[in-house]
Structure formats: structure tokens, C-alpha cells
Amino acid sequence: MYDTSEAKKIAEKRALDAADQEIIVKTIEDGVETAWDRLECQQPQCGFGQLGVCCNRCTMGPCRIEPFGKKPDRGVCGATADLIVARNMLDDLSTGAAAHSDHGREVLEVLLETAEGKSQGYQITDEEKLKSIAEEYGIKTEGRQKEAVAEDLARAMLEEYGTLKNSIQLVERAPEKTKQLWKDAGIYPRSVDREIVESMHRIHMGVGADYVNILLHAMRTSLSDGWGGSMMATEGSDILFGTPTPVTSWANLGTLSHDKVNVVLHGHNPVLSEMIVKAAEDPELIKYAEEMGAKGINLVGMCCTGNELLMRHGIPIAGNMLDQELAIATGSVEVMVIDYQCIFPSITHTAGCYHTKVISTSEKSKVQGATYKEFHPETGLDTAKEIVRAAIENYPNRNHGRVKIPSKPIQLMAGFSEEAIRKALGGTYKPLIDAIVAGSIKGVVGIVGCNNPKIRHDYGHITLAKELIKRDILVVETGCAAIASGKAGLLVPEAADLAGDGLKAVCNSLGIPPVLHMGSCVDCSRILVLAAHVADELGVGIGDLPLGGAAPEWYSQKAVSIGTYFVSSGVYTVLGIPPKIFGSPNVLKLLAVTLKDVVNASFAVEPDPVLAADLLEAEIERKRTALGI
Amino acid sequence: MKTVFVRPELCIGCRHCEVACAIEHAESKNLFDAIVEDPVSKPRIYVEPAINYLTFPNRCRHCDPAPCMQVCPTEALYRDVDTGTVAIDYAKCIGCSVCAMACPFGIIQFQNVFQTDNDREVNAKCDNCIERQKDGRIPACAEACKTGALEFGDANELIRVSRKDFSMRIIKSAGTDVEVPKIPENIAAFRNIMKKIAETREETA
């Protein structure tokens, strides 16, 4: 056993946030295993795998390439390091694109069922957005019922998953110059599912053997995610649940309650959690909670499901990916509801140490040891009520002697959808463009992506965000990065004091924070739309704008897709964790150097966030100079 | 003198040597059966994570004279003269662990082995794959290592290569190719990144 001071030292190394540290100490004292412990147990990690030169795709293998220039220099099939690395990367990227796009499909299915009057508890909330997107799709809106329009739109969007027409409507939103560049490079996306299926085909033995050609398809697949599946997830969710507008709320593990029934909503898809929000407002259930000795029902979000609820309803957010085990370890969670993505398979194991029940809701992500409540839109609200009831019934099982909740949640402001930002600017991007031209804002960087226990929890996100705003670079964020900034107090207008004079003045005049929370991971599509609008107003391509992207603590395959669609769209992107490509000098060179000639953007890897800020600033300056500003 | 020479700079931590060692010391000597044997065979070589995510495959050096042999009260440890191996007679081992205290490399571990009838733990140290060597094969770990971090051969010859490299680095003669180890740029870049990741966690807390 550790003594407390030793546990504190370990906790400080693991996480930046004080509330997280407090609970990490508790996990150590309670003997609860976390991702950090498992990472330690995994050391050393296989170098072949880390370098991307391990191929386990067929049964002639597994094969690996000797990275120091000796034999074996080819797999059994003859694949070189370049080919194996490229195939592995396309495999990862397609997995990520599939995850986003499948999420989008589910949202659109609920939209369709709602339009058809088959869903329970759902409604079309943002009619204005419905209309404007329907018009993009060439669907008549005048004089028609919103349900009829929504039905046509949902069908038109769903059709694009496997379309025969070889194009995706929302891709048209990209600036002309950017689209032309995609056409010239042969990476214009044709459909959502098709690119992913084709990826799977291309990485089969005996198909793609030219690493450049494989990586070009990776770019096309990523674009079908960013400007296709992810964007559809965002737009569909906005139509159903409302386009986010600025909202004030709270973040960190301190949002859990000592005397209310705590329900943590974890995962990525808002379709069920939206119903849980409704169910938790049910007077009967609130009364039931009181009968069971609680003072009410406390919903908190986690990861991107949390971001969706925070953006639209101001539901407090307990934390990001590495907080999922910590939330349970507070001993105060009655139910953790999970949909899918980024949920540790060990979460039920963690829950087994306390009274927490894990309820899985998606047929795609059943977890052993979890209670499975099958969710259907037709009975969405009923299922949500059942889940809330189960949480209330579990409240008396809470052992208050084992509860520890950090005391101070941090205030934050979220809800900066592209529309909200435009509105804050007065309806046009001109003020932002003027500020950029004048140099009071040098550029904009999107910090996105996950946590990874290899990096001190949130250190990469926070240090980079602080470093950028100090240099008058506006930061927009999604996903776990945005939650990190919430916990660190960067998402409030007062944080403008940490910014450089130029950015500070702009933020103060608009009353906005220097770091803008733009939503969940699929909402990286909002960043693309923002970039497209700015580029359109200037009549240039996205690759001409002084923009940057960063994923300081990424871990997931989805992040491979996001990073690649950022770069493919013309946004220079710095990663804090090396992707599994270092085994191929050729792939490295292509992604870090050659791509600049194709899309005027490339990847870089820099774990030190201060140095990452240097790289981003230099790239922003390069683009500014090219624009003559 | 033949030995398994270690070039830690070429170790990438895949632990294939550990797996190969465990298989070699299993009764079945094949992976799929070895994983269900009772007692399950364990490796006698240990890939240890060190600073900055670098790794070191730690293995018995078969010292001569061998401190473990010198202190073994039952003479369970003995030298196989043909291969220069410090070997163990499991039947004579009493599990007193004095050998482990004397070992300068800390690689002696006590395990259940299939050769003993009861389930007592004995010194299950590296036996230099004596059986394989007698068949003209090299130790399993060296055979499994694809990066050359573990190389079996004449000690002086293997050391010569390292010595030459060291001399080259000292002299830094222009235009002279360093024989080994030549670390490719991409691998050096990767290690530099991992070093930064390791340092960031240490330094910022």
C-alpha cells in the first residue's frame, strides 16, 4: 500500500487538474485499478507496433519489418515497411471514420422516425436549420410541414451513405478552391460508406501496394467523415435537439452531488441521453428520488455525450476520457449510462468496487457486467425513465462513508456552434477577418482530441491553449480537449486576461472566452464549416487561411480521421503522440513534408506543448505572409 | 567463448524473446499448447522498461566464475563445460534464493517447472538453451530477436563490432561509416519524441 503523500505524488504526475488528483489518490488508496496502472503494466510496449511495422492482417503472418535496416525487410506477402505502415494507417483511419459516420447514421434514423411520427419524446427543434439544410439538398420547403421536409432530408442524407451519385451534398460547403484541389488530387469523397468499405478492400493482401495511393485514399476517406458522416451527425443533432447557443455551466468531478441521485451520461451519441434529460425532469421521478432519501436527480455528462448535453442544455460535465474511472471512484455514482465509443471495457470492473451500476444502451456496445437496456426511438422516453428509476433505486445502496467528491466545480461557458460564433460576431465573419488582418488575432487553432495516459492528463491541452492565447491566437475546441479547458477555467470570458493584448481586447469587446467550446468530436465539422465561411468571405481556399489544428493527447482511431481531414482540408496539424508511422521514413516524409505541396498543410509531431505552439505560430505566420497580411 | 551479446540500443521492447524463451522451456515447445500447460512456462529473460521508454533485455550472463554457483549450498547450480552454461539441477534446488542474492544482474526468478513433480518453486534460470545448442541451434531468444539486440556468437567477435563503433564515435572520423549500431533517422526521431513524452510527465508534476 502507498502512503498518502506518495499517492499524492503519483497523482500529480498523472493529472494536471486538482480535482482529478484528489480522486486519483482515492483510487490508489481504495486499490482501484485505472488506465494509468494498466499502462504501467503494459511496459515495455512493442516497438514494432508503435512504429507501425507490425502487420497482423492475414495468416501468412503476423509479420514485422526490422526497423534498423536489416532483414526481414518485407512481410511474407512482400509488403515493405512503407506499405505496412500505410495499410495500418488506413485501417485505423477507416475505423475512426466508421465510428463517426455510424453515429451520424443513427441520428439521421431518429430524425426520419421522428418525421414519420414513430419516435417517442423526440421533436424537430431547429426548424430554421432544417430548412436551410433542406435547401442545400434541393428539397422544397415552402408551404410544407416541417415533418415532411425532415422526412425528405433524412432520407436524402441517409441515401448518401451508399449513394450511386458519387458525391455528398455537404461537401459542397467547402470553398471552390479547396474542392478543386481535392478533385485534382483525386481525393474528392464520393459517399460515406463507400470510402470505408473501399479502404477495407484496398488493405486486403494483393490489392493496394503503392503506399502513396493508399494514403491518398486515406485522405478521401477522412474527408467523407469530416464533410460527410461527422457533419451529418452534427447537423442532424442540431435539427433534432437544437443548435447550441452560449450557455453557462460547471465542470469537473465536483459536479457530482453528495445528496442527489447521480447519473453519469458517458459516450458519444445524444439520442438516448437527450431523453434521459427529459426523464430526469419528470415530477414523478423527482418525487420518487425524494422518497428514496435523495434531494433530487443530478445528471452530469462525460466525454462527448456530455459535450452534446452541455452545449444544448447546460448539463454540467464531470470530465473527459480519463475521468470515467475517477467518476465511479468518487463512490457517488448511482448509474453510469453508456452508449458507445471511448468507454473502457473495464468500466464494469471499476463499478464493481462501488455500488455503481453500468447501463449499456446500444446493441453495438454491450459490455459484460453491465445491465443492457435496449434503446429504440419508438420507446426512447420509456427507456430513459426506466434508467432514471434504476438509478433512484440504487441510491440507498450508496455507502456515504466511501464517498469523496472534490469540492469546487469550475464555471465554464460552452455552446459556441458555428452559428453562435457568427451571431456573436454580428452575423458575419467580417469582424474576425478584420481582427486577423489587423493582427490583433494572428490566427485560429482548433485543439481537439482525446486524453492519453502517456501524457499527463490535460497537461498537453491546457499548456498549448494557454500558450496560443498568450500569442494572440484564438483557440476553438471540441471533445476531451474542450472539457479539459472547462476544468482549467479557460472557457470563461475572464480567461481573456490570460490572452495577449490583441485577443484580450477582441474577447472583451464580444464578451467571449479566448477558448471557445464548439462541441463534441463529430462537431469538429463545425470548425470546418467556420473555416469554409471565412474562406468564402475572402474568396480563398481553407489552406490559405492562418489556421492550425492540434491533438496534444490523442489516442483514438477517430482522431486519425479528424487529423487527416483537417490536413486534407488545408489545416496544419500538430500531434502530441506519435502516430504509428515512424517505421516508414517515406510515409513520414509524405505526411510531414510532401503534403504541403498538395494541400498546403501537413502533419507534425511535437509532445512539448510550448514547442507545438511555436510550430503552429510559425505556420500561421507563413500563411499570413502568403496572404500579404 | 560463445555468448548472447546484448545491444540495448537495438532493443525495441517487442518481448518476442520472452515469448520464445517461455515456449522453449515449456514441455510442449509450441506456443498454442504452451499457453495451456500446467504449470505454465514463464520466460527466463526479462525485457525491462528503462528511462525514456528505452528497454533492456536482461538475461543470465553465465558468469565464470559465477557468484550464484559459488554460493549455492546444494550444488544445484553447475557448469555445463561444452557450452559454458551455468545450469541447474531442479531436483537439487532447495529454493533458498541465496543464488538470487548473489546474482549481479538480478535475473534469477523462482518458478514452478514441469520437470519437478510437486509444485514447489525452483531457480528457473536461463539455461542458455543447452539442448538447442547441442542440436547446433542458437538460443531461442537470440533466434527470436529480429532487430539484432540479442546476438549469439563468439563474444570477442561481437564485442569487436561494438568496440569499433565506440571508437568511431569517439574519433568521429569524417566519411567513415560507423559499422553498428546505425540508428536510422526516423527511429532516432521516434525515440526523441518518446523521450520528450517521458520527460514531460516527470518534469511538470
UniProtKB/TrEMBL annotation, chain A:
Top-level EC class as recorded in UniProt: oxidoreductase
EC numbers, comma separated: 1.2.7.4
Positions that bind [Ni-4Fe-4S] cluster: H268, C304, C342, C450, C480, C521
UniProt keyword annotations, A-Z: 4Fe-4S, Iron, Iron-sulfur, Metal-binding, Nickel, Oxidoreductase
Binding site for [4Fe-4S] cluster 1: C46, C54
Cofactor(s) needed by this chain: [Ni-4Fe-5S] cluster; [4Fe-4S] cluster
Catalytic activity: CO + 2 oxidized [2Fe-2S]-[ferredoxin] + H2O = 2 reduced [2Fe-2S]-[ferredoxin] + CO2 + 2 H(+)
UniProt xrefs under InterPro entries: CO_DH_a-bundle, CODH, HCP/CODH, Prismane-like_a/b-sand, Prismane-like_sf
Binding, [4Fe-4S] cluster 2: C55, C58, C63, C77
Keyword Oxidoreductase: yes
GO molecular function, one term: 4 iron, 4 sulfur cluster binding
Any one of the GO BP annotations: response to hydrogen peroxide
Leader sequence residues: none
Oligomeric and partner information: Homodimer.
Protein family membership: Belongs to the Ni-containing carbon monoxide dehydrogenase family.
Task performed by this protein: CODH oxidizes carbon monoxide coupled, via CooF, to the reduction of a hydrogen cation by a hydrogenase (possibly CooH).
Name listed for the protein in its UniProt record: Carbon monoxide dehydrogenase
Gene that produces this protein: cooS
From TrEMBL, chain B:
Keywords: 4Fe-4S, Electron transport, Iron, Iron-sulfur, Metal-binding, Repeat, Transport
Stretches that traverse the bilayer: none
Keyword Oxidoreductase part of the UniProt annotation: no
Domain of life: Archaea
A single MF term (Gene Ontology): metal ion binding
Entry keyword RNA-binding: no
Pfam families per record: Fer4_11 (PF13247)
Protein name in UniProt: 4Fe-4S dicluster domain-containing protein
Taxonomic path: Archaea, Methanobacteriati, Methanobacteriota, Stenosarchaea group, Methanomicrobia
